[in-house]
Design a protein that fits this description.
Number of strands: 14
CATH topology of the largest domain: Aspartate Aminotransferase, domain 2
Bound molecules: pyridoxal-5'-phosphate
Structural class: alpha/beta
CATH architecture of the largest domain: 3-Layer(aba) Sandwich
CATH superfamily of the largest domain: Type I PLP-dependent aspartate aminotransferase-like (Major domain)
Strand order of the largest sheet: 4-10-9-8-7-5-6
Helix content: 40-55%
Order of helices and strands: HHEEEHHHEHEHEHEHEHEEHHEEHHEEH
Strand content: 5-15%
Largest sheet: 7 strands, mixed
Distance between the termini: 11 Å
């Protein structure tokens, strides 16, 4: 490992110096905890297509793709050129603009659960509002989330995300909140039904990522169907957090792919076209709970209406250009991404296992992650299984550094492919994995 570290340090001196400066003025040297990795992160200076370059001039095939947001690669011309024209009209005006109307219309056209739309600035805000809508609409308190599910640093949902899945995920959260934010096991129908039954009378909603970012193991369709039926039966809302899966697993998201329509959906990432965004869409009667015209009194409405930078013309234009492009080329893009995902998952897993490394590559469509099970790997089906039954948290660090030394930037051993990843990029990922697997075995 010393050799690996030495090589990393040797090729990234400017990043190391920047991180030392950052640590003096920023807690832990970063702004988003996922952007840190030991011993220090590299500082990106430019990104295009499937690659980014750091301040030391190193090139990486990028699998992080801006937190999985860039499905059509970094800085695509169709967005950059569109925004360049728009920029001369000014930046944020704080007045409604026509692009938000066009974008909302397009979302209602594409997303099965979308009858009405609200824009905000981040995915975190979107999940906060979705929870508020569920509680406001049902006049109930309990929200169920899956164990290991991440919905942004939203205080309502900052529970049971990391090992040992027992406590709040931060100081400063009200302990009372955890009385009303509870968890249900992922991909376990019986246990999920028990969790729902326990709070049926006060259950406002169940929020779930159909393919959780924690592990990228897809939900069984039967499990999602059971959640859909049971929430309907007990009068609770089903919320799909599609901030990762929206426009990524298919044009209409996981709800289209799996054929299950939730009551509310949160979107972000890909939908922003590279700009900050959060979106809540859903059933008309639920979304209308935040209509300030029909519900002028704040005590009669679900208040979703802040956000200085919500619906900026530039942000709406970027989202519109992105989704329009995906809509026009969906028939080509999604089958290709799926095929590339399968190839990379197979290639990476084979490379590791052939070298005696007990690893497993999970994923769906263009998403994948690598885990290192402690023993036999059968039956890893949830984020909890990954936390309890794999050595991934420890081994990720070494794996990542080794892959970076080979010019491939991974997160949790994998990441998200884009339409700009070429066959050569995939060859490079698999070759790099073979090389580091041999070194790891040695
Ligand atoms: C599933 C999911 N929900 C919500 C969020 C929060 O989104 P944002 O980081 O834009 O606030 C994320 C971000 O990683 C996410 O993956």
């Amino acid at each position: 490992m010393e050799e690996v570290l030495e090589r990393y340090r040797g090729s990234t001196p400017k990043s190391e110096a920047l991180f030392q400066r950052a640590e003096k003025v920023m807690p832990g040297g970063i702004g988003h905890s996922y952007r840190y990795h030991w011993p220090y992160p590299v500082y990106a200076i430019r990104a295009k297509g499937s690659k980014f370059w750091d301040v030391d001039g190193n090139e990486y095939v990028d699998l992080w793709m801006a937190h999985y947001a860039r499905i059509t690669g970094h800085a695509p011309d169709f967005i950059i050129d569109g925004l360049a024209q728009k920029l001369s009209d000014g930046l944020h005006v704080g007045i409604v603009n026509q692009h938000e109307v066009e974008f909302a219309e397009m979302l209602c056209d594409i997303i099965p659960s979308a009858e009405k739309v609200r824009f905000c600035c981040t995915g975190t805000e979107a999940t906060m509002y979705a929870v508020r809508l569920a509680r406001g609409y049902t006049d109930r308190k309990v929200i169920l989330k899956i164990e290991g599910g991440w919905h942004g640093p939203n205080p309502e949902l900052m529970y049971k995300i990391t090992s040992p899945l027992e406590s709040a995920e931060s100081l400063g959260l009200l302990p009372e909140t955890s009385r009303y934010t509870k968890t249900l096991p992922f991909n376990d129908i019986e246990a999920a039904m028990r969790a729902i039954a326990e709070d049926a009378h006060d259950l406002a909603g169940v929020i779930i990522e159909p393919v959780p970012g924690a592990g990228c193991i897809p939900a069984d369709v039967h499990y999602l169907k059971a959640l859909r039926e049971e929430t309907l039966r007990v009068g609770a809302l089903l919320i799909f957090d599609e901030i990762i899966t929206g426009f990524r697993v298919s044009l209409g998201g996981a709800q289209e792919e799996f054929g299950i329509v939730p009551d509310l959906t949160t979107l972000g990432k890909v939908a922003g076209g590279g700009m900050p965004i959060g979106i809540i869409v859903g059933r008309r009667d639920i979304m209308d709970m935040c209509d300030h015209i029909t519900r002028p009194n704040t005590w009669e409405r679900v208040n979703i209406g802040g956000g200085t930078f919500s619906g900026t013309p530039i942000g709406m234009m970027a989202g519109l250009l992105q989704v329009q492009y995906l809509k026009e080329s969906a028939h080509l893009i999604y089958p290709k991404l799926r095929e590339m995902g399968e190839r990379v998952r197979r290639g990476v897993e084979e490379a590791l296992r052939q070298n005696g490394i007990n690893a497993r590559c999970h994923g769906y469509g263009s998403l994948y992650q690598v885990v290192f099970p402690f023993g036999k790997d059968e039956g890893i089906r949830s984020p909890r299984d990954i936390l309890d039954r794999t050595d991934s948290q420890k081994r990720d660090v070494e794996y990542k550094l080794r892959m970076m030394n080979e010019g491939v930037f991974v997160v949790k051993g994998g990441g998200a492919l884009s339409t700009e990843h070429s066959d050569e990029d995939i060859d490079k990922i698999i070759r790099a994995t073979q090389k580091i697997a041999q070194e790891m075995r040695a």
